[in-house]
Amino acid sequence: MKNIIIASTSTVHGSGYLEYILDELKTFFKNADSILFIPYARPGGISHDEYTNTVKTAFAIINKTVNGIHEFENPVEAVANAQAIFTGGGNTFVLTDQLYRNNLIEAVQKAVKNGTPYLGTSAGSNICGLTIRTTNDMPIVYPPSFNALALVPFNLNPHYLDPDNNSKHMGETRETRIKEFHGFNPQPVVGLREGSWLHVNGDSIVLKGSLTARIFEKGKTPYEVDPETELNSLK
């Protein structure tokens, strides 16, 4: 049975790495002593080791050990043997490219569908959707495919920002970009604001945190859903 947390971000303003969600993760990872970390998204171009060390420090607070997938000779076997998996943020295109090149798309899908707990933040959440076409990131590399893990039946837009009516910026809003996406693609999109996450438990998909999420469906006016709303019918 799938057990997934899809979080908008790893860090909310004014707090440390994963600090806002650590209490939730303590329960989420209660049956795992160790967590396999996938650092491929590499925020700011930092090394896999540097990124993994940041994650190790955060999870030590809840007494979990962390190993980076890059430390294993066979990453597919590492996923198959993992007690739990965490994919961090950074660039979604870089992350997706590395998942394909290391033959990990099917490996992660299989592990999660077999019940391995999966946590994603930012880019690691983007890949939980059907495709990565609604990421905010620049396509700095060209992955073999934009198709993602399809762990939920829609696309995601982590770090969703509402239009600022007082801003003089004349560029596109997130809502405008998602509307453009729907000009060519049918998939619904969930806009996750900072500090919000989805908890997938089997067939249930529930919005968590204190903020609403914005839902975009092709041909419909975007609308808000409250925390604790069930989203499993969104397809």
UniProtKB/TrEMBL annotation:
It is found in: Cytoplasm. GO terms for molecular function: dipeptidase activity; serine-type peptidase activity. Keywords: Cytoplasm, Dipeptidase, Hydrolase, Protease, Serine protease. One of its GO terms (biological process) is proteolysis. GO terms for cellular component: cytoplasm. It catalyses: Dipeptidase E catalyzes the hydrolysis of dipeptides Asp-|-Xaa. It does not act on peptides with N-terminal Glu, Asn or Gln, nor does it cleave isoaspartyl peptides. CDD domains: GAT1_Peptidase_E. Gene3D superfamilies: 3.40.50.880. Its EC number is 3.4.13.21. Its main location: cytoplasm. It comes from the Bacteria. InterPro entries: Class_I_gatase-like, Peptidase_S51. The keyword Hydrolase applies. Belongs to the peptidase S51 family. This is dipeptidase E. It comes from Aestuariibaculum suncheonense.
